[in-house]
Design a protein that fits this description.
single chain; 252 residues; alpha/beta; Rossmann fold
């Protein structure tokens, strides 16, 4: 394979967007997904091009498990037409959404929606795409600092991310024969539009998180995207099945 190519879910905004751009700075190309914000996705493609890398956006709804086969077919077409190769190197399972609701008030519908997008989606998307990852490639699953510490209203969301961390260990074991390293990155509170943008836009929440974070501030997307890009470097080929928290020392 001549070109290093990453597939990133939810690359049109937030952590996924910054991961696309951080990889672009290292001259690593990307195919990224978006669910409904095509204009945002188009802007990311243009930004990556300015950095000297190629990026292609494909629409994908992670809650539509039956659509994964069609997505895989689209991805194969893109890989052949843009890179003249049948495989890619890196899969970053990033896409998701938040829920701020107490354990007692969480509904079955809310629970099922989180489960579909955060657990079932990544599980079966990875299963679908694994044959197309080059041997020696990497998978990064995005979790959350909330699997280590607890905050009000995050029980259901954190439960899903706990499942992602267990899944990561099993993937690391089962794909090791192909030298595919699988790790999980667990961000702390990040100033994005995730969860309605409360960490970014609510000064009281921002200040509270800063006060319980060793580094004294909330995280920025660049704190995560750059770390993921670094994790994919050849120097980290011997690390697999690990949870890497990137939270600035939140609630140490």
């Amino acid at each position: 394979m001549n070109n290093k190519v990453a597939v990133i879910t939810g690359g049109n905004r937030g952590l996924g967007k910054d991961t696309v751009l951080s990889l672009a700075k290292k001259q690593i190309d990307s195919v990224f997904t978006y669910r409904s914000h095509k204009q945002e996705a188009d802007e990311v493609v243009k930004h990556a091009a300015k950095l000297g890398a190629k990026a292609v956006a494909i629409q994908l709804d992670l809650s539509d498990i039956l659509g994964f086969t069609e997505f895989s077919t689209q991805l194969q077409h893109v890989l052949h037409s843009h890179w003249q190769q049948p495989q890619f190197n890196y899969l970053i399972n990033n896409a998701g959404f938040g829920l701020d609701n107490s354990f007692m008030d969480t509904t079955e519908s809310q629970f099922d929606s989180l489960m579909t997008v955060h657990v079932k989606g990544p599980f079966f998307l990875t299963q679908t795409l694994a044959p197309h990852i080059a041997d020696g490639g990497r998978i990064v699953n995005v979790s959350s600092g909330l699997t280590r510490f607890t905050l009000p209203g995050k029980a259901a969301y954190a439960t899903m991310k706990g499942a992602v961390e267990v899944m990561t260990k099993y993937l690391a074991k089962e794909l090791a024969h192909r030298n595919i390293a699988v790790n999980v990155v667990a961000p702390g509170a990040i100033a994005t539009d995730f969860g309605g943008g409360s960490v970014r836009d609510n000064h009281a929440i921002n200040n509270r998180i800063s006060s319980i974070t060793a580094m004294g501030r909330v995280g920025e997307p660049a704190d995560i995207g750059a770390m993921i890009a670094q994790l994919l470097g050849d120097e980290n080929r011997w690390m697999t099945g690990q949870r890497l928290e990137v939270s600035g020392g939140m609630l140490l």
